[in-house]
Amino acid sequence: MDPESTQLQQALIASFLGPDPAPFETLISHLMSSSNERRSHHELLFNLCKQSDPNSLSLKLAQILQFSPRLEARATATILLRKQLTRDDSCLWPRLSALTLSSLKSILLWCIQREDVKTISKKLCDTVSELASSIMPENGWPELLPFMFQCVTSDSEKLQEAAFLIFVQLAQFIGETLVRARVEFEPDLSSSSSRV
């Protein structure tokens, strides 16, 4: 690749991963384009961002999920984040810094509490459960089960539903871990069952 093309790519990556969310939102919206040429071009740019700075890419996806007013952008960011964090071939999780890992886990839990669009909330639950299934056996997300039990015992039907969706999906992957946690949190569950 010639130096001019390399400089252009580096400038584009810097723009996409910079502080302004608009270029990155445009990039991910083009990933869903019906035009093969446009989609392929933006997939290449997305993958360059992924190779260049996986921490920033992951945090930009989380930022869109957290703050974008556009439903399509949040939905796409949720799907892309799940794919980047949980797929075997291209999984970014082991390559991310401890700070990024901690931030992503906190943002995902925050978004579950705040997201009001049911389809996006379901995608979030899918992302959380799929990620948790791979990192919980090594105690990689100690905050998750207490969070889920708080959701189950809350007065919010939305949070109760989210927790139950995650529990159901997790049960097939880490049932033993959930059984041990149930014993730990059983008093909380007993007191909430009368409200549900």
Describe this structure in words.
The protein is globular, with a radius of gyration of 19 Å. It is mainly alpha-helical. 78% of the residues lie in helices and 0% in strands. The mean pLDDT is 88.
Strand content: under 5%
Largest sheet: none
Instruction: Return the average pLDDT rounded to an integer.
Output: 88
Our measurement of the CA-to-CA distance between the termini, rounded to an integer number of angstroms, reads 61 Å
Give the ordered list of helices and strands.
Answer: HHHHHHHHH
Q: Rg, please?
A: 19 Å
Low-confidence stretches: none
Rough outline: globular
Q: Provide the structure class.
A: mainly alpha
Number of helices: 9
Into which percent range does the helicity of residues fall? Answer: over 70%
Using DSSP, what is the number of strands? 0
What's this entry about, in short?
Helices cover 78% and strands 0% of the residues. The protein has 196 residues and is mainly alpha-helical.
Which structural traits does this protein have?
single chain; 196 residues; mainly alpha; 9 helices; 78% helix; globular
